[in-house]
Specification:
This protein is an alpha/beta fold. The chain has helices at 16-32, 46-54, 86-102, 111-119, 161-164, 229-244; strands spanning 5-9, 36-40, 58-61, 106-109, 123-125, 145-149, 169-172, 179-182, 187-192, 199-204, 214-217. It has a single domain (5-244), classed as Rossmann fold. It has six helices and eleven strands. The strands form two sheets. Strands 2-1-3-4-11-10-9-6-7 form a nine-stranded mixed sheet, with helices on both faces. It has a two-stranded antiparallel sheet with strand order 5-8.
């Protein structure tokens, strides 16, 4: 069977070193799970981007050093808010719209999860304060904290018992200073940090729109692909969904 093509935007329009290191990790996780990683430039005309992603069977939105423009969820930026990356946001929105319209599987990570939430009409906490949990642990910390996974969630189907135990407390390599405040339309919270209730994962609610696989996590399973069986399971399930994807007929309700 042909490997499903997975559209992955270049992480930033401003940081080539970050792009080179980060994109390769996402692409490696996709390809080792049976997919074909397709780089989506942030500089092509929208029509060219649309043609490229039309030939893809899934969308992966990666992390970024930028923050989502807070004006998109009705706020002015705080001093702690990082600069925005309009080119990356434009491409993410094209990818999300295509995947929504066609029912393609979506996996989002860190910044990508925040983009998904805002695109669906949700809001963000611009900077996490007043918590003892180290959410911004960074690339070199293997386990920053645990995330409590909702037992009835899509995500729980990918969590390996040996890692999370019977209480579904999954060790995660967190690396974010922002978080979801209000979930977007059709999204539900399916993981949080027990100590401070910070949202760590969202996914389509049972009555959500778009395809059947829409999952966003705030940690970085691509970085822990070798060390974590759950990280591998997340990518393997995503690729399996992309292999099984068929376009939604125009008359099919998005639910």
């Amino acid at each position: 069977m042909t490997r499903p093509r997975i559209a992955i935007p270049i992480p930033t329009s401003t940081d080539p070193e970050y792009n080179d290191q980060g994109w390769k990790q996402y692409a490696s996780a996709v390809e080792r799970s049976g997919g074909e990683a397709v780089a989506v430039s942030l500089n092509d005309p929208p029509a060219a981007t649309a043609r490229l992603i039309a030939g893809c069977q899934g969308v992966l939105l990666p992390g970024s050093g930028a923050d989502v423009n807070p004006q998109k969820y009705g706020q002015e930026p705080t001093p702690e808010c990082a600069p925005t990356d309009q080119l990356r946001e434009n491409v993410d929105e094209l990818l999300l719209q295509d995947a929504h319209n066609m029912g393609k599987p979506i996996l989002t990570i860190c910044f990508g999860t925040q983009m998904l939430n805002v695109w669906r009409g949700g809001s963000l906490i611009q900077h996490l304060t007043g918590t003892a949990v180290n959410h911004k642990a960074g690339r070199t910390v293997r386990v920053a904290h645990t995330a409590a996974i909702a037992p009835d969630s899509l995500l729980s189907q990918m969590v390996i018992d040996e890692e999370a135990g019977h209480h579904l407390l999954l060790p995660v390599n967190s690396s974010h200073h922002q978080a979801i405040a209000t979930p977007g339309d059709g999204l539900r919270i399916t993981a949080h940090t027990p100590e401070d209730e910070v949202v760590e994962a969202i996914e389509n609610a049972p009555d959500g729109v778009g395809g059947r696989f829409v999952l966003g996590v705030q940690w970085h399973p691509e970085r822990s692909f070798d060390a974590s069986e759950t990280s591998r399971a997340i990518f393997q399930r995503f690729i399996a969904e992309a292999k099984a994807w068929n376009p939604l007929p125009p008359s099919t309700p998005r639910n």
